[in-house]
Amino acid sequence: MVNAILKIFSESLAVDAGETIIRMNEAEKNRLKPAAEAETEENMIDGTDNCAVSEDDGMEEISKGKISRECDISDLLPSDKWELKEVTALLMAQQTALEIIVNMCCSEDPSDDEWEELSSSDESDLFMENSYSEGSGLLMSPLCLSAEVHSAFLNNLIPKKILEKTAFPNSVALDICMQNPSWKPLIKKLNTVQCRALTCLHSILLVSDVDCLGGASALQSLAQHLSQLIFSKTELPEDMEFLEAITSALRALLQTMASKNISQCMTPEQLLALCEASIHSSNANVRVNVVSILGISGSVLAKVQDTAETLKMIGKFLLEVAMKESSLVVAGEALDALFDVFADGKEAEKAAVQMKLLPALKEFQPVFKMRIRKEGKGQYSTDQLCVLDNVKMNLRRFIAYQETLGKNPT
């Protein structure tokens, strides 16, 4: 049963929606062309008849009117746009397939309310694939999927199909949709499919180990792919749904790579540019993702020589977010990222001293505690408050740790 379902999903995802739009739009033009030509010819005949009967009375006008209506074939044409409906159905099928695959890979099924929230705002869950292995290089973790599902995913090349859907929509297809008002809503549907695929990527990265993901080379290829999606255009993406989906996927990927000491392909400068552009997003999840991404990157850099200046830039950015961010959740994530970046290493110690991190945190500590007391109740969930309490405790411990370093310089 599972294999049969995934086979259907695989066949649906294998269809190139962009090429389908191009083909169906051409089919619509060809279908409507005879009607347009007939109407033009009829208008020419009407013009000739008008000249011929210009001196006749109203009876001939009535007769001509009957002829005109008899020659009108518009009633014989399809009243609906079947080509447009076919493309819409395809995109809906692909979106649904991706959403179901996300649920199949999650350790816990989200409730209806949770999925509704995920669908309306934007994603955060699932995928995996060795981009160039014809579906065999990237394996599902047997710890997270049953043997049946694991085998069905691989047999039907689901990972490969999902990765393909993370790419930007066909530019020619987008132009067609932009120029045709009735086809324009397809643009949103194309973007939604891309975001669902990125959500799939995020989920698989969370539940799979490195070997199951195809090894270090596959993860580095995936990092390059995500980097191209983010930085391929002159301006960073602004769409909230896409930003949340891709930053969630990138966060999970960088965390996986960092945990296994796999070199990262994105430069600190690129990550800082992404964070500076995204930190003002109205979507708090995007802001949480980007500060976490910066924390992961900084913690890796802290182990590399001659990175103090870069660590100082990262530290200043995270400290400013922690102090000025309106959301306590984002501020707490920024503090957590700071703890990760400056947890260990001579370069981190040097950068912390140069940016006066310890006095800044000691001054901020009572402010953060007061904000939690004043803003916590009523504005944040119990789980969020637990996380914030943990951040508050870690802040106290981190300050004590930094004080110890000051007393015992290495």
Short description:
The protein is mostly helical and 410 residues long. The chain has helices spanning 2-14, 17-52, 58-71, 82-105, 112-121, 147-155, 158-165, 171-179, 186-207, 216-231, 240-259, 268-278, 284-301, 308-324, 328-341, 346-354, 357-379, 382-407. Helix 2 (17-52) packs antiparallel against helix 4 (82-105).
Descriptive key words:
single chain; 410 residues; mainly alpha; Leucine-rich Repeat Variant; 18 helices; 0% strand; elongated
Q: List SSEs in N-to-C order.
A: HHHHHHHHHHHHHHHHHH
Average pLDDT metric: 81
**Strand segment count:** 0
Helix content: over 70%
Number of helices: 18
Please indicate the percent range of residues in DSSP E strands (runs of 2 or more). Answer: under 5%
Distance between the termini: 62 Å
Round the Cα radius of gyration to an integer and report it: 29 Å
What characteristic shape results from the CA principal axes? elongated
Extract low-pLDDT stretches.
66-78, 108-143
Largest sheet: none
Count of discrete structural domains: 3
**Alpha-beta content class:** mainly alpha
Organism: Callipepla squamata (Scaled quail)
GO molecular function, one term: unfolded protein binding
Domain SYO1-like TPR repeats: 147-404
Protein name: SYO1-like TPR repeats domain-containing protein
